Amino acid sequence: IGDGPEKEGLQKLAKDLGCGDAVRFWGKLSRDQVLQRMAEVDLLMHPSFHDLGPTVVLEAMASGRPVVCLDIGGPSLMVQEDWGIKVPVDNLSQVINDLDQALLQLATNGEKRISMGLKGRVIVSENWSWEIIGEQMLSLYQEVINS
């Protein structure tokens, strides 16, 4: 979901690897369209080296989808082994291999994929709802004001 300078290269790579029919590039979508598409997928792969707080990870979890991400940045704080797979970042070939293995693991084990997705949904509802975030922000502001 989304557009960017890497889109064409990624589309070509998917085609060259023979998985072009299984990978979708939907382009830029409205928020409602993103949530609709999220309900249509089996998982979210978020292999970003730079995202500090990606909302899409929480959206996927709220939609009951497990997340495969790199063990760096914001996603590594949001995702735990019960509801996703974090891939360590040592070198590029290791990352590619581990992402491949994580996707294969979830693609071939529907029960695990569903279980992880359901756990992620619970985590989001218990820790990341607007009400809970608001309470945390209020508490933080009160702490700053009172100090």
Would you kindly provide a written description of the structure presented here, covering whatever features stand out?
This protein is mainly α. It has two domains: 1-40, no CATH class; 42-146, Rossmann fold (3-Layer(aba) Sandwich). Helices cover 57% and strands 7% of the residues. The chain is built from seven helices and three strands. The protein has helices at 7-16, 31-38, 55-62, 73-78, 92-108, 110-127, 130-146; strands spanning 44-46, 67-70, 84-87. It has a three-stranded parallel beta sheet. The N and C termini lie far apart (44 Å). The mean pLDDT is 92.
Overview in brief:
By secondary structure, this protein is mainly alpha-helical. The chain has helices at 7-16, 31-38, 55-62, 73-78, 92-108, 110-127, 130-146; strands at 44-46, 67-70, 84-87.
Q: Which characteristics define this entry?
A:
2 domains; 3 strands; Rossmann fold; 147 residues; three-stranded parallel beta sheet; 7 helices; mainly alpha
Tertiary shape: globular
Tell me what portion of residues adopts beta-strand conformation: 5-15%
Number of strands: 3
Across the major sheet, the strand order is 1-2-3
Q: Any idea of the CATH topology of the largest domain?
A: Rossmann fold
* Poorly predicted runs of 5 or more residues: none
Would you tell me the structural class of the helices and strands? Answer: mainly alpha
Helix content: 55-70%
Would you identify the CATH architecture of the largest domain? Answer: 3-Layer(aba) Sandwich
Radius of gyration: 17 Å
CATH C-level class of the largest domain is: Alpha Beta
What count of structural domains?
A: 2
Mean pLDDT: 92
Biggest beta sheet attributes: 3 strands, parallel
Summarize the helix and strand pattern as letters: HHEHEHEHHH
CATH superfamily label of the largest domain:
Glycogen Phosphorylase B
What is the overall number of helices? 7
Distance between the termini: 44 Å
